[in-house]
Design goal:
Strand content: 25-35%
Number of helices: 7
Number of strands: 11
Radius of gyration: 17 Å
Shape: globular
Largest sheet: 6 strands, antiparallel
Distance between the termini: 5 Å
CATH class: Alpha Beta
CATH superfamily: PPM-type phosphatase domain
CATH architecture: 4-Layer Sandwich
Length: about 240
């Protein structure tokens, strides 16, 4: 695998509450790992939540002997969720903090994906496909036929998410299993990217750039060019 990632404060926020982690090398029983977390909460709390979740997930995986990617990710998520929830209950500064979470592992050209919240994973080849499903109020309205998808992009309640890590004792992730082809790339991102750039433009930028680093930098720059209304995080990876 080969990958590149970047997180950026954007143009409007006072601080960056996104956190990312990516490695093409083995971590514990997993051959690689890619994570984006978009924190939420009051003063510094979102920043703490996203960083803590990534630290706890990677810490758990490093010590794990479970070889099944879904099983180890599921247990790591429970461990991290308990940690953040405990911190929020013990420190009033952290009350109500939480974070989205999207992660991917590639084993023998099979990609295992997990998500909680509205951070996304896209599969990109000749076209672009959103693999994850947003856990958001707007997405639920769309899926139940109460809102047209074209109108959802600018909906006033676009940022209300229905699942997150660290806000309840039970956390419910979605898992996906995707078979990768040799030319496939996949992109993990926070909504600071996906809310600012249309999916087709994301695809065009990834396909036009000569390497992963150029594509990541151009995606972040383009999101900022369109207003940079939120923190922007991107990880782009491909089979080496």
């Amino acid at each position: 695998m080969k990958s590149c990632g970047k997180t950026d404060i954007g143009k409007k926020r006072a601080m960056n509450q996104d956190s990312i982690f990516y490695t093409d090398e083995a971590i514990g029983p997993l051959p690689n790992l890619y994570i984006v977390a978009d924190g939420m909460g009051g003063h510094k709390a979102g920043d703490v939540a996203s960083k803590t979740v990534i630290e706890c997930v990677t810490e758990y995986i490093k010590e794990s002997t479970i070889s099944n990617p879904v099983s180890v990710l599921k247990r790591a998520i429970i461990y991290a969720n308990d940690k953040v929830l405990k911190m929020s209950r013990e420190n009033s500064d952290y009350n109500g903090m939480g974070t989205t979470f999207v992660a991917a592992v590639v084993c023998d050209e099979i990609m295992y994906v997990v998500n909680i919240g509205d951070s996304r994973l896209y599969l990109i080849h000749n076209d672009i496909r959103q693999v994850t499903l947003d856990h958001s109020l707007v997405e639920e309205l769309i899926r139940t036929g109460q809102l047209d998808r074209n109108k959802g992009r600018n909906h006033p309640e676009k940022n209300i998410i229905t699942r997150a890590m660290g806000i309840a004792e039970e956390v419910v992730p979605d898992f996906f299993e995707i078979e990768l082809a040799s030319e496939d790339k996949f992109l993990l991102c926070s909504d600071g990217l996906s809310n600012m750039i249309e999916d087709d433009e994301i695809k065009d930028i990834v396909r036009e750039c000569e390497n992963l680093e150029d594509a990541v930098n151009k995606l972040v720059d383009r999101a900022n060019y369109y207003g940079g209304k939120d923190n922007i995080s991107v990880i782009l990876a491909a089979i080496d």
